[in-house]
Amino acid sequence: MKSESNKKILEMLSNGKISVEEATALLSKLQDTDTTDEQVIESESGEVNRKTPKYLRVVVDSANGDKVNVRVPLSLIKTGIKLSALVPGNAAEQMSNHGFDLSQLSKLDGDELIEALSDLQVDVDSADGDKVKVFTE
Fold this sequence. Notes:
Strand 1 (about 40) and strand 2 form a beta hairpin. It contains 5 helices and 6 strands. The protein is of the alpha+beta class. The protein is about 40% helix and about 25% strand. Helix 1 packs antiparallel against helix 2 (about 20-30). The radius of gyration is 20 Å and the shape is flat. The two termini are about 15 Å apart. It folds into 2 domains: about 1-50; about 50-135, no CATH class.
């Protein structure tokens, strides 16, 4: 799959649809991904798009050696939105008293949320040497 994506990027470069810098960035992005879930696709207008992400990833590398690597399927977000409607009223009220308002979750559109998350990227490098990365893939 990556070789097909590499070929497509090089074709777009040779056809003048993208610059050398854009091709380099895309090729670098392909090399940096740990999965083939994300593909580079050229739309009819010549724009480069990414495939819809399937996972929310959280990676923590602390200065003292602790490491965390969490990959959550985005389908769980949609399921969680639906399940929030099943929480009994008294439980939701107790959660609300502690700052958790689940009533808003049932109003969310799961597909819109996942689309919004597709551009999510958080990179934190603390002064203590801790690194945190949150992104979708």
